[in-house]
Design goal:
Distance between the termini: 27 Å
Keywords: Ribonucleoprotein, Ribosomal protein
Order of helices and strands: HHH
Largest sheet: none
Structural class: mainly alpha
CATH class: Mainly Alpha
Protein name: Large ribosomal subunit protein uL29
GO cellular component, one term: cytosolic large ribosomal subunit
CATH architecture: Orthogonal Bundle
Radius of gyration: 13 Å
Family: Belongs to the universal ribosomal protein uL29 family.
InterPro entries: Ribosomal_protein_uL29, Ribosomal_uL29, Ribosomal_uL29_CS, Ribosomal_uL29_sf
Number of strands: 0
Amino acid sequence: MTKIADLRAQTPDQLSDELLKLKKEQFNLRFQAATGQMEKTHRVSEVRKDIARISTLLRANRAAG
């Protein structure tokens, strides 16, 4: 789980890269769940919440500046 203070310290480009990485991980986790190979079920909700945090920060940065 990513802390919001760490995310606020990053540039928008870094946040976009992190968002892309998390979306790929989310896809892979969904694929694992569908095939019954998922081991860390809690990771799905963590990734989803991290994606929401980053999306919110990116949206706020665009609105502010």
